[in-house]
């Protein structure tokens, strides 16, 4: 197991994004209501449902690619799906960070950085 750290980070990202997308799918109305309030004073105030669909799609892509990537590494030491999963994870987190900063939720933005660090590490290791 030469790539155990990469596998662990990919599993971490997969759990993070698949659970988050599952929450968005099954609690859509609650998420929309909360986000409309969260972004009420921003240029995104009228775009919340569309923004949530975009984030949901990116989270699903990120999570699925990370699962496939972890399996690929374990089975044949391949890295391409894991790399794409890590890249999509970074893009998703940057979008979330942008939203949090726009809403002036600096604590929320700080939390996203905690997820961004292992995502960038995965991109570095798998590249």
Could you characterize what this model shows?
The protein contains five helices and no strands. It is an all-alpha fold. α1 packs antiparallel against α3 (48-76) and α1 (4-26) packs across α4 (80-102). The two termini are 18 Å apart.
Record keyword descriptors for this entry.
DoxX family protein; membrane; transmembrane helix; mainly alpha; single chain; transmembrane
What is the element layout, followed by pairings?
Blueprint: H1 4-26, H2 28-38, H3 48-76, H4 80-102, H5 106-126
Helix pairs in contact: 1-3, 1-4, 1-5, 3-4, 4-5
Keywords: Membrane, Transmembrane, Transmembrane helix
Transmembrane segments: 51-71, 83-103, 109-126
Protein name: DoxX family protein
Percent in strands: under 5%
Low-confidence stretches: none
What order do the helices and strands follow?
Answer: HHHHH
**Which bin fits the share of residues in helices?**
over 70%
Number of helices: 5
Q: Tally of extended strands?
A: 0
The N- to C-terminal Cα distance equals 18 Å
Number of domains: 1
Mean pLDDT: 95
Shape: elongated
* Rg over C-alpha atoms, rounded to the nearest angstrom: 15 Å
Characterize the main sheet: none
Assign the structural class, choosing from mainly alpha, mainly beta, alpha/beta, alpha+beta, or little secondary structure.
mainly alpha
